[in-house]
Amino acid sequence: MAGVEVRRYGLEDKVATLSRRLGLPVVTSFMGRGLLADQDAPLVGTYMGVAGFPEVTQLVESSDGLFLLGEIICDTNFAVSETKIDMRKTIQALNGQVNIGYHTYANLPLAAVVNRMLARVPGPDKAFSVTPQSFPTGLAEDGQSITPTDIATAVNDLMARHGKMPMASDMGDCLFTAMEISHTALVAPGYYATMGFGVPAGLGLQAATGERPLILVGDGAFQMTGWELGNCKRYGWDPIVLLFNNASWEMLRTFQPESHFNDLGHWGFAEMAAGLGGDGVRVGTRAELKAALDQAVATRGKFQLIEVTIPNGVLSTTLARFVAGVKRLNAPK
What we know:
Elements: H1 4-8, H2 12-22, E1 26-29, E2 43-47, H3 54-61, E3 66-69, H4 75-78, E4 90-94, E5 97-100, E6 103-105, H5 110-120, H6 148-162, E7 167-169, H7 173-178, E8 186-187, H8 198-209, E9 214-218, H9 219-225, H10 232-235, E10 240-245, H11 250-255, H12 269-276, E11 279-283, H13 286-298, E12 304-309, H14 317-329
Parallel strand pairs: 1-2, 3-4, 7-8, 7-9, 9-10, 10-12, 11-12
Antiparallel strand pairs: 4-5, 5-6
């Protein structure tokens, strides 16, 4: 299982090589999503316990030798495990040390561990294959209302036609929807789970890499920091922004449905885009979503804001699994 330190210390290519030589399938954690997306690694998917794809959950939780590389042991990554993982039966390389069972080996930086293992396992690569998790494709272009999983499907179709795009996601169902999008570079506030990250992170992504990003953001988070898009014209940035507008803090509502402060109302974000220097369009059907994405990817030079209206109470498949799993794990025994 690859975690954030693999990216932090520039080890993705070496970890991919190590996995091939050892003949070991690879998953990322929730906080490690986006790792190895551009590497030749036997990547199965992202581990999310009860919220994730069952085949990935079973692979991780039934492992007799879970190797955690640069993986932070925290609730974000492991609190929703279907079967409690016994960390004493894992190998953990993190924070400059290695833990095996009750033994701790200090002063072992992750890069040194990986380099030494590569030296001990010189190759060749072992011949084996893995079955990666599947992602939804083939959006029906009809008049049906849009669900978050429809958005993931539309993005998967878009990337299949035009190539991968790096993504920045905010917190909420947009981040769970990102888990249903095929593997690509991703930045998101997975650790602190705070709102308002998505739009500024997307701008930073384009400033740092020069690549055109796709930004996933909810209406609540957009109310906080979406106005940073006004800086795009000055710097020549042109992200594609998918704004999930269900007029509510829907993720909070799923856990506390009786609280009316989750109701936000519609602010008309699409109409505000022109004043910020970009183009805006509001879509409410799957056919309109497909057309808007096609138009957005074809238009360069200024940001493209697609305000997607989503009915209240409609969740992505992944968030629905997460909510059901958390409630099941916390139900009175």
